[in-house]
């Protein structure tokens, strides 16, 4: 393992002794930072920002330089695989991602291309290499991908959805098509993550944002089993995060992953009792707490830290991504609270 100037994140992830809990936050490089918004004005759209390694590196480093997080995460998006499949991905202001082509049939799935990361997403490896150089072994770098299920929801719905009726309907009416799509995405996701690993990331995280919309048995069949295939195929520590997935923590811990992310609806103490020493846990402050006053932010953070006081195997994070209208000063309060916790 690489010797880092600040190794806390990897130590905690591997449940090794730490001097304090490490902290990073999901979407830590994003619109809440004025420095990010300034860079964003330089490019015509979000995808260009993701596909320009020099800018992706610059954005990745912004929160590291400003807040001193214990880990960096590659600046990209969970939809780069379907974008590379030429489905017409666009990010529309106030609407989010939309696809010109959607998956509705077996034929649609069969027409999806097989990707070569070197040819179809070369900017990912290039970004990782630039970020690693910029980090200069200061802290580890996290790579990531969306889970096959979550990526599939966008490909079938065509956009962000609240009910996910189209893909949930597919699960019941045409489960063979759903499995065919998920299997294809799993294969592509493994290659995509292996490219990040070859370029130098230290661990990877799989974001299953929409796994929680499935009832437990369907979640295990259509989401978790495919994430388990990804874990088994990679020779690097993997963190799994399913939003609203706290009901299936034990099954998640049994996939072979080394860490589990928790959203803010999960009880950290109960989660710790459930998984024992099987995996590290990451989470799980409600992002809305960052709207509160500094005293409240510090108090809520300490309540979470108290669960693992004096122990390893815990990484402080939010229970989901930081929202764009959060004050950077409040993020600073959170970071300092974790850094100074005794």
Total helices: the number is 16
Uncertain segments are none
- Strand ordering within the main sheet: 1-4-5-6-7-8-9
The first-level CATH class name: Alpha Beta
Helix content: 40-55%
CATH architecture: Alpha-Beta Barrel
* Separation of the first and last Cα atoms: 28 Å
- The biggest beta sheet, please? 7 strands, parallel
**Tertiary shape:** globular
CATH topology (fold) name: TIM Barrel
Alpha carbon gyration radius: 19 Å
How much of the sequence lies in strands comes to 5-15%
Number of beta strands = 9
The overall pLDDT average reads 97
Elements, N to C (H/E):
HHHHEHEEHHHEHHHEHEHEHEHEH
Question: What does it look like?
Answer:
The protein has 342 residues and is α/β, with parallel strands linked by helices. The chain has one domain (8-339): Alpha-Beta Barrel (TIM Barrel). The chain is 47% helix and 12% strand. The protein has helices at residues 8-13, 34-40, 46-50, 53-67, 80-84, 106-110, 117-120, 122-135, 148-157, 165-173, 175-199, 216-233, 249-253, 268-275, 294-307, 328-339; strands at residues 72-73, 89-92, 96-99, 141-146, 203-208, 238-242, 259-261, 280-285, 314-318. It is globular and about 60 Å long.
């Amino acid at each position: 393992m690489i010797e880092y100037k600040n190794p806390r994140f990897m130590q905690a992830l591997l449940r090794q002794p730490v001097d304090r809990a490490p902290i990073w936050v999901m979407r830590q490089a994003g619109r809440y930072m004025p420095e990010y918004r300034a860079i964003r004005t330089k490019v015509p759209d979000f995808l260009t920002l993701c596909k320009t390694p020099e800018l992706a590196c610059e954005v990745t480093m912004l929160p590291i330089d400003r807040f001193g997080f214990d880990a960096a995460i590659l600046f990209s998006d969970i939809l780069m695989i379907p974008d590379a499949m030429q489905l017409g991905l666009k990010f529309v202001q106030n609407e989010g991602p939309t696809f010109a082509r959607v998956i509705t049939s077996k034929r649609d799935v069969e027409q999806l291309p097989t990707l070569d990361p070197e040819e179809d997403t070369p900017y990912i490896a290039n970004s990782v290499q630039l970020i690693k150089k910029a980090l200069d072994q200061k802290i580890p770098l996290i790579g990531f991908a969306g889970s096959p299920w979550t990526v599939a929801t966008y490909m079938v719905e065509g956009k962000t959805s609240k009910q996910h009726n189209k893909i949930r309907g597919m699960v019941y009416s045409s489960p063979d098509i759903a499995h065919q799509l998920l299997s294809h995405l799993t294969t592509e996701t493994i290659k995509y993550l292996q490219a990040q690993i070859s370029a130098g990331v230290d661990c990877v995280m799989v974001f299953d944002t929409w796994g929680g919309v499935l009832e437990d048995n369907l979640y295990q069949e259509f989401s978790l089993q495919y994430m388990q295939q990804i874990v088994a195929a990679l020779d690097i520590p993997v963190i799994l995060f399913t939003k609203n997935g706290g009901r299936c923590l034990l099954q998640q811990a049994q996939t072979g992953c080394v860490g589990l992310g928790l959203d803010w609806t999960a009880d950290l103490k109960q989660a710790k009792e459930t998984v024992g020493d099987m995996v590290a846990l990451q989470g799980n402050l409600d992002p809305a707490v960052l709207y509160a006053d500094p005293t409240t932010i510090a108090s809520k953070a300490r309540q979470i830290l108290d669960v693992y006081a004096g122990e390893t195997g815990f990484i402080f994070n939010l229970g989901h991504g930081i929202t764009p209208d959060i004050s950077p000063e409040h993020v600073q309060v959170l970071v300092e609270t974790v850094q100074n916790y005794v």
